[in-house]
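re the bet — no i am not wrong, look at it urself. input seq straight from the record:
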Amino acid sequence: MIAVGASDNVGHVAPFSTYGGHVSVTAPGVNVYSSFLNNGYALSSGTSQASPYVSGTVALLKSFAYQKGKKIKNDLIRDIVQRTTDKFSNQFKDEKSGFGRINVLDALKMLNYNL
């Protein structure tokens, strides 16, 4: 499990974001353009907008490993996602942002190194 907080477009934890020791990472969650009712689109904010970024990152990492002919354990995926974040503070992990904001490129580089 990866608990996700929301960050804004300038790299700060969103004021409405969930926080606490359970938060693993943050992802963009402010003014995310998304599908909406009646085949429309709208800007929405929340951790519900942030979590698909993390899910997509995990899916990309698993797909990348699969293409290389490797099966990868979920624990390693979570570890890579957490260790390759962009930090919000000088702490390894903090209560507001967890390990930091996801960094998909760095996660792919680390996975490639570990395969």
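see?? The longest helix spans residues 47-67. told u. also The mean pLDDT is 93. so pay up
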